[in-house]
Amino acid sequence: AQAHGFLSAGGEQLTQLAGLLRPLVLESWLRSVRGGVDPTDVLDGRGLRGADLERYRDAHPIAALMPLIDKLLVQDAARAGLIVTVADQFGRVLSVHGHPEQVAAVAEIGVREGDDLSERRVGTNAVGLVVRTGRATWIHGPEHFLHRMHQITGAAAPVHEPDGRLVGVLMIAGGMRVAKPEILALVKAAATAAEMDLVLRAMRAGRSVPAPPPDGTDRTEA
């Protein structure tokens, strides 16, 4: 609450944010301010909808991975009352999975199929940060830049093509219980499995697959 107070005041008050926010979140908030994102932004009708969204989603490389994602992530998350969001490499939401009540609830705050969750559009959020950094991360409640997103916590991880390019983002969203290491580990494991599936598909298609980085870097943000 104190950090959002300084954010609302703007100007020199923004210097007071240091120490109140995690460095990852602070940097994202400041980028959001510079980008002109309004923290009181209300939900609008912008985004891909209807047949346009269906055509885009069906043609996206993530479409071939959905049976695996459903098996490894969606089914268990739905039984636990959580939401699974699948986004593209730009932060565009391709699909939202879970019980209809939860899906409707997150739609009211802007996590809807076809919506843009990039940082430049809605400020600090888990999907947007993964798109920007290429690293798994979680954003809890009021760490979100937009006020309307303060009721959810998201843990998200990137899915990369065999050549290292980002192809999509997986996110588990829900209440405070999502802000746990095991939830982030779960979504990271599903993303890794999806990446391995892409590698196997590339090998079957006869495409060369680059070797993994020798240092075994864990692409996770604190």
Tags for this model:
single chain, 8 helices, alpha+beta, 222 residues
DSSP summary: helix tally: 8
Number of strands: 5
First-residue to last-residue Cα separation: 21 Å
Shape: globular
Q: What average pLDDT do the residues reach?
A: 91
Strand order of the largest sheet: 2-1-5-4-3
In words, what does this structure look like?
It is a single chain. The protein is of the alpha+beta class and 222 residues long. The chain has 8 helices and 5 strands; from the N terminus they run H-H-H-H-E-E-H-H-H-E-E-E-H. The protein has helices spanning 2-9, 23-34, 50-59, 66-79, 100-107, 119-122, 126-133, 181-204; strands at residues 83-88, 93-97, 137-140, 153-160, 166-174. A hairpin with a 4-residue loop joins strand 1 and strand 2 (93-97). Helix 4 packs antiparallel against helix 8 (181-204). The longest helix is centred in the C-terminal third of the chain and has 24 residues, at 181-204. The mean pLDDT is 91.
Summarize the topology:
Blueprint: H1 2-9, H2 23-34, H3 50-59, H4 66-79, E1 83-88, E2 93-97, H5 100-107, H6 119-122, H7 126-133, E3 137-140, E4 153-160, E5 166-174, H8 181-204
Antiparallel strand pairs: 1-2, 1-5, 3-4, 4-5
Short structural description:
The protein is α+β, with helices and mostly antiparallel strands. 40% of the residues lie in helices and 14% in strands. The chain has a five-stranded antiparallel beta sheet, sandwiched between helices.
